[in-house]
Pyridoxal phosphate homeostasis protein (Lutibacter holmesii), 222 residues
Amino acid sequence: MTSIADNLQNIKSTLPANITLVAVSKTKPVSEILEAYNAGQRIFGENKVQEMAQKFETMPKDIQWHMIGHLQRNKVKYMAHFVDLIHGVDSLKTLKEINKQALKHERVINCLLQLKIAKEDTKFGLSFTEVENILNSEELKNLKNIHIKGVMGMASFTSDESIVRAEFKTLKNFFEKLKTINLFNCTPTTISMGMSGDYKLAIEEGSTMVRVGSAIFGHRNY
Ligand SMILES: *Cc1c(COP(=O)(O)O)cnc(C)c1O
């Protein structure tokens, strides 16, 4: 078995310099996250707010914590004081709640809009029309404590590479459209797509941020 540090090193050696690696540490103990930290990793992704908040309390404060999971609005308050980027934003209501909680801490919280690119019903996310409705809404213009930094998407779980590639392409094309929008709280620079099984494809299709868990930490036991 290879170590966490070795896995991290192997993955980083294949990533182009402009790609941000989010080490997905959900379900993993602090001791294993520290192994990655000691190997130089500073960005970690979690999918449960309380678990992330507990880890934030006990771990070095130069870690950037990313919320990558499906978000419940009533949980936003537990991470508003420290979260660095929220990947899974899928409604205007959630943006409003993030804005409200960020304001309490005098922060601006970075967000990505999650788009549904997979055909599977199990995947969360907005349709392209829904994103356009959010961006055109008057309410969005009042949200001074959020910053929309781009988009996030998850491809279908399939061994058919052409399907995964097509879904990533869709997200990349939408991102290019998003960049032409002129809003003070929306400056898209980030496409969060690609996980352990498909991050190489995602990078070929224009990803700027990959979320890799099991390829670094090994398989998860839920
Ligand atoms: C768990 C998770 C990942 C990482 O998955 P791996 O296959 O272990 O790399 C990436 N993104 C999201 C949204 C996740 O929930």
